[in-house]
Specification:
- This protein has two domains: about 150 residues, SPOUT methyltransferase, trefoil knot domain (Alpha/beta knot, 3-Layer(aba) Sandwich); about 55 residues, tRNA(m1g37)methyltransferase, domain 2 (Trp Operon Repressor, Chain A), CATH 1.10.1270.
- The protein has eight helices and nine strands.
- By secondary structure, the chain is an alpha/beta fold.
- The strands form three sheets. The chain has a five-stranded parallel β-sheet. A two-stranded antiparallel ribbon has the order 3-4. A two-stranded antiparallel ribbon has the order 8-9.
- The structure holds adenine.
- Adenine binds next to strand 5.
């Protein structure tokens, strides 16, 4: 999978790709992530990428021209399956959308700033608009990082234990059951006996029940 991220702040977003699973996925060649500084696509000497909104009002608007030039350059070299704009008024991200994105080959992510982008970008250049939640970040970079992380970890071979990603919370509309590791008794706080029993079917049943209980308590909306 190849992801091209268009941003005004490439330095803000690079470091998460230099550690842990994202780093490994890139080193293994499972994912390629490229950063494009939008200022390099500005057309005037001042490298201007934003301007005042027509009709007045507070805040600046990201101009269409640098964004269009950057996307056109990328599209010249390959076809893109999805061109995503990260925005708080986009479709809310969930595990099902992430699963779908993880099957794609080439993705562009556009990070917004200031008041957002000229509406014509959204109308003519973008194929998907994604929000990571009902709150406002200062830009789309952190949202794009979250989206990349959630997608890349699902690419086959990226996580060592293939079954691990499938047992995540939300994969089957259930939250994950509690997990424990050594020591089995810490300050008198004990691990449930069933997990030490060695009985695989009892353990599996226990996990299913706990998942269900946990979901009922915390996210009953998922069970509907
Ligand atoms: N940009 C600013 N806030 C955002 C959010 N909640 N989701 C996606 N992009 C954003």
């Amino acid at each position: 999978m190849r992801i091209d991220i268009i941003t005004l702040f490439p330095n803000l977003i690079k470091s998460p790709f230099e550690s842990s699973i994202l780093k490994r996925a890139i080193a293994m060649g499972k994912a390629e992530v490229h950063f494009h500084d939008l200022r390099n696509y500005a057309t005037n000497k001042n490298k201007q990428v934003d301007d005042y909104p027509f009709g007045g009002g507070a805040g600046m608007v990201m101009m269409i021209e640098p964004i269009d030039r950057c996307i056109m350059m990328l599209k010249k070299n390959r076809n893109y399956d999805s061109i995503i704009y990260l925005t708080p008024d986009g479709d809310q991200l969930n595990q099902m959308k992430i699963n779908t994105f993880s099957t794609l080959k080439n993705i562009i992510m556009l990070c917004g700033h200031y008041k957002g982008v000229d509406q014509r970008v959204r109308d003519h250049l973008i194929t998907d608009e994604i929000s990571i939640g009902d709150f406002v970040l200062s830009g789309g970079e952190l949202a794009a990082t979250i989206l990349c992380d959630s997608i890349i970890r699902l690419i086959p071979g990226v996580i060592g234990d293939e079954s691990s990603a499938l047992s995540d919370s939300f994969q089957d509309d259930l939250l994950a059951p509690p997990i424990y590791t050594r020591p089995s008794n810490y300050k008198g706080w004990k691990v449930p006996d069933v997990l030490l029993s060695g009985n695989a079917s009892m353990i599996s049943n226990w996990r299913e029940e706990e998942s269900f209980k946990h979901t009922q308590e915390r996210r009953p909306d998922l069970l509907k």
